[in-house]
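Hello,

Our lab assistant flagged a job as stuck in the queue for most of the afternoon. It eventually completed. Since we weren't sure the result was trustworthy after the delay, we are filing this so someone can double-check. Below is the sequence as submitted and the structure that was eventually returned. Let us know if re-running is recommended.
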Amino acid sequence: MNKKSVNKGKQLKFAREYRGHTQVGLCKEIKGLSQGNLSRFEKGFEGAVNDDKLVEIMELLNFPVSFLDAIIRPVYTSYGLIY
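-- returned structure --
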């Protein structure tokens, strides 16, 4: 696990939640994707989901695959830290 794989996991989780999917719900729509592997990927274990599945997931979520490599920096506001 490295910073890049942790970031990809966070990005995927953001995209999934933004589109209103749970892990279980998303796995029901992607053949061969287990909830356990999705969870591991979102926690930063990059090998838990193969590249072909990532393409399927991102297409279903209507996000470009390149979104997984985006670097999201925290923003500090008067309300506190937000991402």
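-- support follow-up --
The delay was a queue issue, not a problem with the job. The result is valid. The chain has one domain: 3-82. The beta strands are 75-77, 80-82.
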